[in-house]
Design goal:
This protein has helices at about 15-20, 190-195; strands spanning about 1-5, 30-35, 40-45, 50-55, 60, 75-80, 80-85, 90, 95, 100-105, 110, 125, 130-135, 135-140, 140, 145-150, 155-160, 170-175, 180-185, 200-205, 210-215, 225-230, 230-240, 245-255, 260, 275. It is mainly beta. A hairpin with a 4-residue loop joins strand 20 (about 200-205) and strand 21. The protein starts with a strand and ends with a strand.
Length: about 280
């Protein structure tokens, strides 16, 4: 069961925050830590201060500020550290992209090797203690690069993996065993690009190093993606449906090569976050 869904933003319809939030991000901070059995750190910007949680007694704590603000970053827990790679931010009215990689460990931030290219809006997941990032975009557009952060002889380094079959902006990632799932995505960041999003996902088995394409119920970007056991859950997103571009509220589970529709989300949304707790 996916027990925590957080970070609702850009809602399709206005709602009272009090009706949404049972546990809210700390306002105007760059790192929130939600104590469960252990603290789970979440990095990035939390401008909306909205979230949904299954437990009304969750309470956010504020961690030390990130060295630099950013959102739409790649992230994951590796080697006991919460690693953040890339991302985008606004400065002086312009959007900028970064290749900076940092890690939260033992109450402080440390720097790791920079990504080979500035990147935001990519799909990320952790497999075997390695952070994987596929696709994404920067000011030059969407790209098909795929990288993994590995530790060799005590030092971290970014290594290349096989490129995606096509450039993808706004895809979301998850891992099941040795397989990296890249769900959705669009060939471009503008309206035309998003409308061209194909109903597909790509799967990379790290043992075989070859991408496979599988169908997706509909083309979209910015979905929530979470793996629980051998099941892949996909919630919401943004794309073209019913003749307009808008947020999705549908929910799906992928298992044994097929999709099954679940009950819709209470609020259509994109760029949200889900965490699977205790693998059920």
């Amino acid at each position: 069961m996916v027990r925590l869904q957080a970070g609702l933003s850009r809602l399709k319809q206005a709602q009272s925050r009090d009706s949404l939030a049972s546990a809210c991000f700390p306002p105007d901070c760059s790192l929130g830590i939600l104590p469960l059995s252990d603290g789970i750190p979440l990095g990035g910007r939390f401008p909306g201060n909205e979230c949904l949680a299954s437990n009304p007694h969750f309470d956010w704590q504020t961690g030390p500020p990130m060295p630099s603000a950013r959102d739409h970053l790649g992230c994951g827990m590796i080697k006991g550290m919460f690693v953040i790679a890339g991302g985008a931010y606004w400065k002086d009215g312009s959007k900028h992209y970064t290749s900076e990689t940092i890690a939260y460990s033992k109450g402080k931030w440390v720097r790791l090797p920079f990504l080979p290219v500035a990147n935001a809006y990519g799909a990320s997941a952790v497999i075997g203690g390695q952070l994987l990032i596929a696709g994404g975009a920067n000011e030059k557009g969407a790209f098909d690069d795929c990288f993994r952060l590995v530790q060799e002889r005590g030092k971290f380094a970014w290594k290349r993996l096989p490129d995606l079959p096509r450039p993808l902006f706004g895809a979301q990632g998850a891992a099941i065993g040795s397989k990296f799932y890249v769900v959705g995505g669009a060939p471009g960041m503008d309206e035309v690009g998003v409308m061209a999003a194909k109903p597909s996902m790509f799967i990379l088995d790290l043992r075989k190093r070859k991408w496979q394409e599988r169908p997706l119920p509909s083309g979209r970007i910015g979905s929530v993606v979470a793996a629980v056991g051998n099941k892949l859950f996909v919630f919401g997103g943004y794309g073209y449906h019913d003749g307009i571009l808008g947020n999705f509220g549908d929910a799906w589970v992928y298992e044994n090569g097929s999709w099954k529709r679940l009950k819709d989300m209470p609020i259509p949304a994109r760029w949200t976050t889900a965490l699977a707790l205790d693998d059920h």
